Amino acid sequence: MQGVPDFQGMPGAPSGGPSAPAVTPRLAAEHGLTPEEYSRILDLLGRTPTYEELGVFSVMWSEHCSYKSSRLLLKSLPTSGPAVLQGPGENAGVIDVGDGIAVALKIESHNHPSFIEPYQGAATGVGGILRDIFAMGARPIASLNSLRFGSADHPRTRYLLKGVVAGIGGYGNCVGVPTVGGDLYFAPGYDGNILVNVFTVGVLPHDRIFRGYAAGPGNPIMYVGAKTGRDGIHGASLLASAEFDATSEQKRPAVQVGDPFTEKLLIEACLELMAGDALAGVQDMGAAGLTSSSVEMAGRAGTGVELDLSAVPLREAGMTPYDVLLSESQERMLFVVKSGREEEVAAHCRRWDLDVAIIGRVTDDATFRARWQGREVVAIPVRGLADPPAYRRPAAEPQRSAADTIVLPALGRAQDHADALERLLASPNLCSREWVWRQFDQLVGSNTVVRPGADAAVIRLKGTRRALALTVDCNSRYCALDPYLGTVIAVAEAARNLVASGARPVAVSDCLNFGNPERPEIMWQFHQAIAGLRDACVALETPVVSGNVSFYNETEGRAIPPTPTIAMVGLLDDVGSHMTPWFRTEGDMVVLLGYTREELDGSEYLAVIHGAVGGTPPWIDLDAERRLHALCLVACREGLLRSAHDIAEGGLAVALAECCIGGPELLGVQLAADGGIAPAAFLFAESQSRMIVSVRRRALSRLKDLAGAESVPLSVLGEVRGQRLVIGDLVDADLARLRTAWQNGLPQRLAVGAGSE
Amino acid sequence: MKWGVVTFPGSNDDADVVYALTTVLGDDARQLWHKDRDLQRVDCVVLPGGFSYGDYLRCGAMAKFSPIMTSVREHAERGGLVLGICNGFQILCEAGLLPGALIRNRSLLFVCETVRTRVETTATPFTSTFGPGEILRLPIKHGEGCYVADAETIRRLEDEQRVVLRYVDAEGRATPDANPNGSLNNIAGIVGPGRNVFGLMPHPEHAVERLLGGDDGLRFFAAASGRHARQRPLSVAPGP
Questions:
Q1: What gap in Å lies between CA A165 and CA A163, rounded to an integer?
Q2: Taking the CB of the first residue and of the last residue of chain A, which one, N or C, has fewer CB atoms within 10 A?
Q3: A:69-98 residues touching chain B, CB 8 A cutoff
C-alpha cells in the first residue's frame, strides 16, 4: 500500500480539475448559494473558488450540513447534566448509565430521499445513523423509527409505507441491529412530504469514547469501507436543503444506495480496531461524504487536512475530483491513525474484506486541501468552512383564521360510544402496528425484554442488572395547533412512556422536522418548538444530548405540520422491575392516576368520529406531570404495580382497550364511569399527565398513600373481570371483536395484506 | 461438551448462540472463523443465523465455499454434531448436508414472531429430552424460511421420522394458519440421514431466558450437551 507524497508548500492557487466548468455567480446560484454567501466565499479565499471548492462550500454551507437557520436557536437547549458524557457537537450524544457503561444515542432524519425512493431512502437513513453511533466506539444495540405519511387514502401512501418499512427492515435486519419500536402517523399534512426519522442507541465503555478529531499533525488519514461512486452527489444540498416541486422525481440520482452487508463488516472491523489504540479519531462519511467528514474532524481539532483524491478507492471509471469530494456513497469511514500503525489498521480491515487506503494526512496549517493527480484543486481555510453563516431568520406568528376555531358538535346527546371506540381502534392512527414491526428483527443481540407494542422498548444491559427503556413520540396535530404546547407535550409523553415501563427518563435526542425556514411563519413555529423543548427538558431533567434539524419539508409552498420528534432514553436499575401495559389477572384493581378535563380539541375522537380538527391542544402542567412520574416510579420500585399504561391519543377508553386486548391474553374490565364529566370527554379526552395502572387489591391502600404524598389525583375505576370492556353504561364491548378491528386496521385500510400465511 | 459457533461475514446471531451456550447453559463455546480449517476439536458445530455474505446470490449459497465448511462436512461425515439455525439451515441445504431448500416466505415479507412448533421425534441428540408431541414456543425471524423439496424427499423425510419440528396452532394442529412461511407439510426443522445434522428455521438461542420471552429453546442445547437445563439467577420473570 503506497503512502501519500508529501505536498507542503504548493506554489500558487489551486486550479480546477480536468474539464471543470468556469466558476461564475450563476454557477454558484445553481449550487444553492445566495449572492451574499458567494461574496463571502470570495472574501474568505481572496480569489474565485475552483469548481471543486464551489462544490465544497455548497454542501458545507447547505442547511442540512451547516444548520445555518437553526444553530443560534439550538444554543438555548439544556445539554448538560450529571449523566452527560458528551453533548451535541459530535457524531452522537453519550450518557453514563453506571457499571462502567455508557450509551450513545442519536436520532436522524432521511425525509427527502425517502419520499423520492422509499426503500433506499429509509435503508440509507438507517445506515447513516448506525455509523454515527459506532463512530463513537459504541456497538449499536437497538433502533426505533418515527414515520409520518400522508392520509391513509392518499394514492401514494401505500407505496411509500410499504417501501419505507421494507427498507428499514431490509437494512436493519441484515446489519444485525434489532428494531424494537417506533411510531407511525398518517395525516394529510404529510401528503407531499413524508418523514422518516431513525433513532439508534449503542453501548460502549464509559472511558473509551471515540471522537471525530483530526488530531496529531502528520498522522495518516485512512479510508475504510465501500468504494466511492457517483451516488448521492448533492444529496445534502439539493435534496435535504430544498423543497419539493414538480421536478423532484428528477432528483432520484441524488438518493444514495445502501449495502447493509458492507455496513455489518464495517461495524465489526471498526469495533475491533476501537478495542485497541491505533486510532486517534474516527468519523463516518455521511451527508456531503468525504468533504464534511474531513472538514468536521479538522474543525474540531483546530488542525488542517490534506487529501489525495486520486488515492480514494473508486467504483467507476471517469470520476472527477468534484465527484469524489461530494459523493455520498454509503458505508465508508474515515480514520485518523497514529503514525506507524497504518499496516495494523489495514490488516484488520482486510480480515473483514473491506477496502482500505491511506488518502491523506493531518496538517498544522488549518487548511482543507485536496489534490487530484498531483494538482491541488482545493485549498480552503478550515475556519471558514467549519464556521458557516448563521442566520437569524425572521419569525412571525401566522394569523389564526376563523376556520381554525373549532365548533364542537353537541356532545350532550347520548351517543354510541362503543361504536366510536371500535371505529377509533380500527382507525389508521390508533390501530395495531403489528404489520410494521413484524417485518423487523426485534431479537438479535439477546437483549430485548419488551418488544414493540408496549409503551416503550426495554433493552437489558448484559453483565448488569440494568436496562434501558426507549421511545419516540410526537403528536404533530397538537404541534400544528400550538407549536409550543405541542412540543412540551411531546417531551412529557415520551417521559411518561418510559415511566410506564418502570424507567427513569435520562436524556433526549430531538429530530426537528419543519417546513421552509425562509418563511417567517415556519420560523415562528421553530422558535416556539425550541422554547417548548427547552422548558420541558429543564422541568423533567432530560438534557438534549444530540439531535437533528430537517428543514424544507414542504411541497409547492405547503409545509408539513411542525413535527419535533422526541427520542428519549430511560434507565431501569433492575430489569426485573420492568412493566408492560396489559392487564394480567382477574381481580386486579384498575386505577386511573391524574385528572381528566372536558377537553376534546385536537383529539383523535373529534378527528375520526366528527371529522373536526382545531382549537388548542390539551392542557399540560409540567409540575403535575413530574409528580405523576415520581409516583409511578416509587410505586413500581415498591412492586405495587401489576401493569402501567400511558393515556394518550384516543383517551381513556382507547388506553383501557389496549390494556385489555394488546397483551398475550384477552382480559376484560368492569368499570364505573365518572358521572361528573361529559361522557365523551371522560372516554376520549386526551388530557395529559394520566396513567392507567392495575394493582392487587391489597396494594391499593399503599398506592393511595403514595398518590396523596405527590398530590396526584387517584380514582379506582373498577376491576379486571370477564371478557368484555364495560365502562358504566357508556361502553359494553366484546373484546374479541375489538381486537379484530384493531388488528385489521392497517392491513384492511391500506390493503397491505396481513403479512402471514 | 465443546461447541464451536461459526462466524461468516454477515452472521448476526453468532454471539447470541455463544451467550446462550456459555452464560446461560454453562458450557464451553467458542467462535470459529470462516476462513479457518481448524474446528478446534469441538463436539458440536453451530452455523448461526444472519445474512452470511449478504444473502448474495441465494441465502447460504456463498457460505458453502468457506474453508471452514470443508471441515464441517468432514466432521458431519464422521458423525459429529452439526446444528444449523435459520441462515445456518439454509447453508446446510446449499452445502448438501441436508436435503431440500429454503425459499422466500409465501407472504413475500420478512416475519419476526413467536410461533408454536411440535416436537415430531425425540430420536435425535437435540430432542432426546422432550416429550413426544410436546409443543414449544420459539421465535422465528426470516424472509426465506419456506422449506421445499421434491415429493420423493418429503416422503422419505416423513417415513424416516426425520422431520424434527412442525409449525402447529395452539391445539397442536399443523394447519395452514399455523404455518408462518408456506413450508411444505409445515416443516420447521429436519435431520440428515445420520440424525447428527439438524437444521431448523426457529431460533432456540432467542428462547433461553424467561426474561426475554421464554426458555423452550434452551432444552435443544441441553439435550445435545447431556446437561440438565438450568437458568442463571439473572433471568427472572417480570413483575410482582
A1: 6
A2: N
A3: none
- Structural domains of chain B sorted by starting position, each given as residue range(s) with its CATH number in brackets: 2-225 (3.40.50.880)
Query: Greatest CA span in chain B, whole angstroms?
Result: 54
Lookup: cell for A68: 445555518
| DSSP result, A473-535 | E--HHHHHH-HHHHHHHHHHHHHHHHHHTT-EEEEEEEEEE-S-TTSHHHHHHHHHHHHHHHH
Mean pLDDT throughout A430-454? Answer: 98
C-alpha cell at A318: 471517469
Cβ A567 vs Cβ A494: under 8 Å? yes
**Grid cell digits, residue B104:** 422466500
Torsion angle, alpha carbons of A257, A260, A261, A262, to 10: 60
Instruction: Out of A176, A465, A757, name the one closest to residue B176 (CB).
Output: A757
CB contact under 8 A, B56 and A261: yes
Q: How many Å is the Cα radius of gyration of chain B?
A: 16
Q: Residue A278 corresponds to which cell in the numbers above? A: 491505533
Catalytic residue selected from A31, A64, A578, A629? A64
Identify each DSSP E strand in A194-314 by its residue range.
195-205, 220-225, 279-284, 304-308
Q: Nearest by CB to B16, from A175, A353, A445: name it.
A: A445
Which residues have a Cβ under 8 Å from the Cβ of A696 and sit 6 or more positions away?
A587, A588, A589, A642, B240
Which residues contact residue B78 at a Cβ distance below 8 angstroms, ignoring those fewer than 6 apart? Answer: none
> The complex's ipTM?
0.94
φ, ψ of residue A466 to 5 degrees: the values are -90, 170
Cβ proximity of B72 and B47 under 8 Å: yes
Question: What pLDDT, on the 0 to 100 scale, is given for residue A332?
Answer: 96
C-alpha cell at A248: 423532484
Average pLDDT, chain A: 93
Place of cell 467528514: A293
pTM exceeding 0.80: yes
Q: What is the DSSP letter of B226?
A: T
Task: Please report the pLDDT score of residue A755 as a whole number.
Answer: 43
